[in-house]
Amino acid sequence: MIPAVVATDLAASSVSLPAIASFFFPLGASALPPFLLILLVIVDNAIRITALFIVPPGRKPGSATAWLMAIFLLPIPGIIVFAIIGNNDLPKAREAKQVAVNDAVTAITAREDAREEPGKDSVPTRFRGAVTLGQALGAQPMLAGNTASVTVDYEGSFADMARAIDLAQDYVHAEFYILQHDETTDIVFTALQRAKERGVEVRVLLDHISAVMNPLAKKTRRSLDKVATQWAYMLPVRPWRGEYQRPDLRNHRKLLIIDGKTGFMGSQNMVDSSYNKKGNIKRGLHWRDIMVHVSGPVVLGLEAVFEGDWYMETGEILRNVDTEMISRDDRPGDLACQIVPSGPAYGDENNLQVFVSLMYGAKKRISITSPYFVPDASIMHALRAATARGVEVELFVSETGDQAMVYHAQRSYYSELLRAGVKIWMFRPPYILHSKHFTIDDEIVVIGSSNMDERSFNLNMEVSMIVHGEEFTTQMDGVSDYYRENSRELTAEEWAKQPWRSHLLDNLARLTSALQ
User: Fold this and answer.
1) Among 229, 283, 313, 375, which one has the highest count of C-beta atoms within 10 angstroms of its own C-beta?
2) Segment 6-34, tens digit of pLDDT
3) One domain, residues 314 and 423
């Protein structure tokens, strides 16, 4: 038998073992039986060695380093957390369905009439590479002949949706990350009820985790049973039904499509601006969002996204997007639009690649609005390169935050951004600026559900729309003017006066943001 003193020395060779031992045994590692100490040492070091093989492959260096640090400091808790949220791969059955969805979209975009769409040709040459890149990575073709209008009126957007639903003749498809039946959204639920009563097919998708955690979960389920022909949860985590994937993989999209002719997309969830949370109500917090009302061929792109998600969750194949509808003559406007769905099943961080490619085409200005701005290195490089060549860059964020870790991680980038010459505008409380969009020069707008953070690039199912057209850019400039009027500029001098403890908390939060 190995003497206790030797076992204790072995235990001391592991950084985390004494802490673990002292936690479970107040007398310390020396009070443990020698065989248990040796077992802990073996397990402790086996975990670390195994982590070197399973963590880095296919992962960004920053993310791999953060995970390895967590596992090396606390091997057992670290490896457990990694096992739960360290893999963003979808289950094989879901991957197979997503491949089928992607193949269907590819078949449509490969058609001759789709390739000859004038949308891409109307885009300035310096941006066409990004459009082509997006399509190669899963986006749809850029289609001409669309109209789009934006609203920042939170309650007004629900009234717009209700009016559109009242005109539905064939179907209404709704897909929202957060969907609750409350006093504010009742106007939409009532419109859906009227649509169903007159024979319109109403299908609804909502995210499972957010649905079961919301304070109006039971009421919402009862309402969906009444107003929807069919409804289903997205990415359900119900192991007892054989439904399981990484629990923080979420479908973050916000879509409403009526008859394939009218659509709504953007950043606004189907919920009251307080999100009906006691903490938000106590703090007086309200969300400010943006939704886009679109018509024209691009609506079929939104429909294709919904139909893909519907198939993923129900196994039912809908056929509202066919080879004839994509090239129909109904072209009410002059905007060229491209739908860019993204998520783990697409791989290659396709939304990130398209965003960065567009930023490198900027000549005059880049205006970004993102509630959770935790950029990776490629975005920071693109923004620094932009300011270095004389491009004006501004960033709109909230002055207050609703998610502490993300809020502090975001703040850790302010020093770099200010040094690079980026102008930071902070939207005044008690409002959370939840809109997600950016404008490049006077020509390109990207708008949708995607934040500029690792979660939206790696984990969430998102949908973005690239819009080319002077009319829409002018609308978005008006939105930015509204933000600016309700924000204050953060200066380098003010930020330099932040206490050291704030910077420490920000930097620690930044480390955790890499655990993807």
Assistant:
1) 375
2) 333 333 344 444 554 444 444 455 566 77
3) no
